[in-house]
Amino acid sequence: MKKGIAEYQVGDAFDSYMLIKSASKGVASNGKPFLTLILRDATGEIEAKLWDASKEDEQTFVAEQLVKLAGDVNQFRGRLQLKIQSIRPAQLTDGVKAADFVEKAPISPEELMEKLTEFIFEMKNPNLQRITRQFVKQYQEGLLTYPAAVKNHHEYVSGLAHHIVSMLKLAKQLIDLYPDVDQDLLYAGIILHDLGKLKELSSATAPSYTLEGKLIGHIPMMVEEIGAVAKGLGIEGEEVVMLQHMVLSHHGKAEWGSPKPPMIREAEMLHLIDHMDAKMNILNRALKKVNPGEFTERLFAMDQRSFYKPVFTNSYRED
Amino acid sequence: MKKGIAEYQVGDAFDSYMLIKSASKGVASNGKPFLTLILRDATGEIEAKLWDASKEDEQTFVAEQLVKLAGDVNQFRGRLQLKIQSIRPAQLTDGVKAADFVEKAPISPEELMEKLTEFIFEMKNPNLQRITRQFVKQYQEGLLTYPAAVKNHHEYVSGLAHHIVSMLKLAKQLIDLYPDVDQDLLYAGIILHDLGKLKELSSATAPSYTLEGKLIGHIPMMVEEIGAVAKGLGIEGEEVVMLQHMVLSHHGKAEWGSPKPPMIREAEMLHLIDHMDAKMNILNRALKKVNPGEFTERLFAMDQRSFYKPVFTNSYRED
Amino acid sequence: MKKGIAEYQVGDAFDSYMLIKSASKGVASNGKPFLTLILRDATGEIEAKLWDASKEDEQTFVAEQLVKLAGDVNQFRGRLQLKIQSIRPAQLTDGVKAADFVEKAPISPEELMEKLTEFIFEMKNPNLQRITRQFVKQYQEGLLTYPAAVKNHHEYVSGLAHHIVSMLKLAKQLIDLYPDVDQDLLYAGIILHDLGKLKELSSATAPSYTLEGKLIGHIPMMVEEIGAVAKGLGIEGEEVVMLQHMVLSHHGKAEWGSPKPPMIREAEMLHLIDHMDAKMNILNRALKKVNPGEFTERLFAMDQRSFYKPVFTNSYRED
Amino acid sequence: MKKGIAEYQVGDAFDSYMLIKSASKGVASNGKPFLTLILRDATGEIEAKLWDASKEDEQTFVAEQLVKLAGDVNQFRGRLQLKIQSIRPAQLTDGVKAADFVEKAPISPEELMEKLTEFIFEMKNPNLQRITRQFVKQYQEGLLTYPAAVKNHHEYVSGLAHHIVSMLKLAKQLIDLYPDVDQDLLYAGIILHDLGKLKELSSATAPSYTLEGKLIGHIPMMVEEIGAVAKGLGIEGEEVVMLQHMVLSHHGKAEWGSPKPPMIREAEMLHLIDHMDAKMNILNRALKKVNPGEFTERLFAMDQRSFYKPVFTNSYRED
Amino acid sequence: MKKGIAEYQVGDAFDSYMLIKSASKGVASNGKPFLTLILRDATGEIEAKLWDASKEDEQTFVAEQLVKLAGDVNQFRGRLQLKIQSIRPAQLTDGVKAADFVEKAPISPEELMEKLTEFIFEMKNPNLQRITRQFVKQYQEGLLTYPAAVKNHHEYVSGLAHHIVSMLKLAKQLIDLYPDVDQDLLYAGIILHDLGKLKELSSATAPSYTLEGKLIGHIPMMVEEIGAVAKGLGIEGEEVVMLQHMVLSHHGKAEWGSPKPPMIREAEMLHLIDHMDAKMNILNRALKKVNPGEFTERLFAMDQRSFYKPVFTNSYRED
Amino acid sequence: MKKGIAEYQVGDAFDSYMLIKSASKGVASNGKPFLTLILRDATGEIEAKLWDASKEDEQTFVAEQLVKLAGDVNQFRGRLQLKIQSIRPAQLTDGVKAADFVEKAPISPEELMEKLTEFIFEMKNPNLQRITRQFVKQYQEGLLTYPAAVKNHHEYVSGLAHHIVSMLKLAKQLIDLYPDVDQDLLYAGIILHDLGKLKELSSATAPSYTLEGKLIGHIPMMVEEIGAVAKGLGIEGEEVVMLQHMVLSHHGKAEWGSPKPPMIREAEMLHLIDHMDAKMNILNRALKKVNPGEFTERLFAMDQRSFYKPVFTNSYRED
């Protein structure tokens, strides 16, 4: 397998493909324009400067463009930098695709879709099932490629579907322990709760906020769309209001973006499950990066805490 | 003019009509059921007990029922109470109507409607004008009768229209002072901002929260409805998003129920104008009840402050 | 089965046993002392006044005393009250015991103990297992009878063990979903996290705070005791510190009583599981008391929210 | 008209006058002292280094000194910098004055003074009018030149008078809408509310905080001075206390610097008007700098929000 | 010595003098007016109803009036009440004075004045000493009789002087430990810091807030007055600003009423000493009322905490 | 006396001993490793780069190592830097010791120990005295060398003992003023309150947090240890609980790390004394660094305030 950018060191020569994550223009001290490129592959990122950039360069080397580069890896202010010797846009004949240059969920989209279908199949309430099916059908492509968030948790390709399936599994277990919960409402709420992000964010691989995303936000957009879909399907009544309430309240508090807090049991559960799965995703990925006896970096979404990885635990695990 | 309930004193005999604001059932120490009625007319409220209430009484004497009563006014624990000697539902032939038994805006619905029409007529952007017209047409009855809120400010019949027209006048003056403001967007935002309350509250004269009002709230409901109305009229584009953003953000902060804060100038103005008109309505009405040299009662919506009415000011007013 | 106090109505005669929950002395307008007794059985509570109470009465009728009473149920300010005709302490020969007059967990202590033993048996780390066993052995009686809290959640006899076993089941499922978690540390943390309450509270059936409970609190007391028990067993090292940290941090934040927030993965999970099981216990019990289409009373430990019980859900449940 | 500094680009030669906004001393790597000068004209600022600065240079090139410079504009770390070839203090014969090198209100001091005089003329209460006149007379020069604040809003020459006149216009309109308001008290409060800044800040063109400004602040200083002025004019009674209260409470809350919140109607209005005019000033100036379809920079005094400038609005404006 | 009201019990006859603390009018169920009197002596308070009160009674029996009463002590809703048989205003010939019917500082005004004079005598800075002397001379009567606060701490006659002298003693000790502190500034700040309360409150024995007290508050009033007194004495310069800053900042934080926090060492000390002496006064008085082994009532000004009085401590005290 | 590092200037030659405070590794642009050393003596710190550092260098030049250096002082980005010409570890024969290269309390450890002994000797309660003696004996070395904190206050060698003795002196004065305080409990609490820091921090001269310090913290560790010591000495009862409570609550509030707030008088005093002595230490040291008429730097532990040093005060001091 090819070496990822995370494995390069100072002095290594580079001759391979990368995806442009962002490109911004500057003016050098000699008065000539240059481009600062952030390049990525599935393992990480590196910065590169393209000096004496022409107008054409500016239009060619933009976010989401795949490029072929040659150059050397050196260091600037303690961070690695790629010194570009040649750069060109990737072509169809190069046989590379953007999706291979970004981090992805540990489960394939096909498998995630299969799991999702199983859960929908288990639903018995026809109204909830039909609305859910309609959304999954309509948004299938985005649902299987978008991240669950721009940063913090599940912030990788297929992160949204990965998060949803993980939450559904957790929900299934909880329904076993607390059997009064309405399974269908909880499943529907989990599947739909973050679908508004498909309109809030601009793309799966280089997501930024859309105008509607910034001024309305994924929660009210999704509440509106559930109303429209239900009307389209001729479904009325309490289920629709409950489903809108599930989505509306899933951030838990007004100051976290939910104008109403959870006011039905399933909405409270949705909030707790979302919270737990997001935290476990953050924690597990951060702890994987450190050795036993060390602390992780400070984790923004965990109140800036560092977590310790104990030394003793390995000795007693079976595997 | 007939004497209002606010003018009765201990010992007065009563023989007239009242509107039941609320009715609740209790069990007396003799084991028999009774009803506690809160009765109101346009000047105020009084409590009455209907002892030995039958099943039929329970079903007859309910909120929003007009009744004819005879009895005496006495006092219980420092508050006036009506001792019922006879009570019956008002009949068509009595020639009384509920609307005369509640507090009303100081301007008539007709005049408010006329003002509203003038402002809409001044709008030049056809998209904003058409959406606004459609809402006013569709909701005209509620718009002209509902209060602006259940308590705190403009909490009287036609309070919503009164608040809207007062805000529009203020907006007009502000546009003179700050001419960069988009008049049409501001007018449309003012007219629509609280229309969701027509679905959030159950009625104009005895308003309580509907299920949808409690679980979704007037702001997301209205955002959804603007989307649906625009689609129905075939209007798309920035104006629709801006109008939804105006409504969404008009409470100003997430913890006050707006998942997005104002992010366009006109949304900020809508929030400030709403705030100012609500505060002036509260203050003016509270200060009317006290004499110069006194403090008002503590005002909940003004951070529990009491306001002082200065003595000196009268002497220099022209009127 | 005997009628519980919750089933009595105004006018009913009473002749049975009750447990005194609290007794407080007052002086009547005739200058004579009386006792206000709060009496309970497994279904609820009722107030009673014992007039002209002698010194001996004061010493006899105290909290946790079982009594035999005869009298009538009447009403005072809208609440039921028991008018005492005769009262005497229950005697051995009466064949009643306090434990039958309080609310209890829906699972028997024996079954809870069995479950607990199974989970401990699954632990592989000998240090964690030995410390846990030692605590369970030493505190077995309290562990199986104490409530998990004085109010809010699992506030009934055996509530602590019920809460622990419910959390252990949830933990088992979560370890399946997130297999990096250290099972033994999580199990040990769950079992020990609230054992300090056995010293913080005075008794299982009429719990109040002890002096040490008020001035030190169950968390630091338990941290201290884990240190002492480990030393007694000759166990040293990281496991002990981690276990102390689990207990110390399980309230999640300094302002909720944990001087350190969770800083290892298992501590974070302990906190999340504790939170989820407590909330589900509160919600499920509150929703059982209302009919579909109604809201629960405001729930103090759920940020004063009322929860709605949907109407639609019954129709699609299998049972 | 001469080119302003904001219009210069990398490579341009410079030969003109600038005002020194601040000067600070450093030591170069060769051990010799240098000065970092921030230079400004009415359009903006630029940094310049004066190498090998002598003791005399240090004393000559200080804040508020006008200088004649020749040099070249180049770039350092992405920002323009002026490379000095020659520099000397401006002389009387140069015919330049500091006032032309700073940002100014869009209305002339003369016109602002005229407006102010008109409003004072409208006042009918002789006590309030006399106190107000006395302050305006005594502080006229500062009032017409000082900014309203060091940053955030109206932070330009004559900003204070511009803010006051703008608030007075707004007040006049509001009094039309809410006629119970005492015009004279509101006018007097608006004119005096920020005059304490003339003592809090050191100068109109390069304002910094005075010792008294830092340790006492403009609000208590102004309350004290109203007391002294009223005593000097032989005026006593409620008007004086009300006026002191207006100034004291105009920041609205203790945490914003007002030890008492507004407790009379006119004080509440003063606070709301101050708030509205400050926000509109910030918003209008920030939106002028961006094109339709863009967001402004984050605005510190607007809770760090960025504001969007809609695209659609231009098409329907008459002008 | 005469029996204080705190020593009376149900059934005792009463025939003595009391001070009216407050009087409020009500209307009885028979339609006749009555007065609710709160009566006090130096040991405590009791409520009494004066039935069938005439207009003259209303004007006679008002707050701060000394009265002679005869009647019986009985009980209403668990609290003692005085049943009035006869009541008349006290006369000069009765030889009683209001000051004997209120709680007083444990040290006499004469002794407090002597102590105060000693501390002023120790001051060496003539400016600070002259300002301080001037205030003490001007306000001597109020200073020696007013409480330090309406409630919470030193809320008794001469409480202000008691608090000041106690703080001065503490300051003297602290200057020994931290000799860099400026003694004169600290002494002057302590003596003046709360003198504004003499204008904020209406009287020494039945204090309520004056209009100026409510709308301006004692801190800004005192800052103003220091300015006026210094000007009157022809004193200018830093000492005056520092003294104003001491008073202005002594509450420590904006949200506690100080628009500027302490920004000189002596101001910080003044705040800390004020805080410590107030807390010790509250604690010592609350702990005196309970027995060893008990908790005090919840103390409002100590964050609602109850304090425990240990049992063990007495055995090792020498006295 | 030798010149301290704080007295060196650009261009000075250096040839003397320094203590390494911290050492971190980097990679230069030529790909070779280097060490960034922070070097300190009792007067201050300086940075130095050791280029082309070998593996051996990395292991030799570590925190807490004394070194002999020769080189020149120059400047990099406005800060002094030492350019190393030669460096070697200090040897026994060099006759230097680490303790001379760090800031120290102004009182010697011997004198501090003597004072401490006197205070313990004054204690009369044998239980409290024995526990205190045991701790002082056991921890004597750390107690006399550790700082009281890593930063903010008393952050120098012997800072802990200096803080304790200063607090004891303050306590003695306060007991004079408020004689109800239990001297022995207060003395014991002061001496023990921060001893947990000896386990929380790694060393006296280069303190960092230990694992136990990070995950448990000094307060719960000390509560545990008081329990263990008391058990070891066979002491039981209220004194032990009170002492644990003193330590537990001394930070005053849950959000500052005390799970219980002070609930006995002596605990409240301990908190207030700790607070006052820490603040005076910070203030006095910050004010020493500035001239009259200047402000100190912003002080983190004083809510980021800058303090002003008045000009007038010197003239009236006797010394």
TrEMBL record, chains A, B, C, D, E, F:
Domain of life: Bacteria
CDD domains from the UniProt entry: HDc, YhaM_OBF_like
InterPro entries, sorted: HD/PDEase_dom, HD_domain, NA-bd_OB-fold, NA-bd_OB_tRNA, YhaM_exoribonuc/phosphodiest
Keywords: Exonuclease, Hydrolase, Nuclease
Transmembrane parts of this sequence: none
Gene3D superfamilies associated with the record: Hypothetical protein af1432 (1.10.3210.10), Nucleic acid-binding proteins (2.40.50.140)
NCBIfam families, sorted: PRK13480.1
Protein name: 3'-5' exoribonuclease
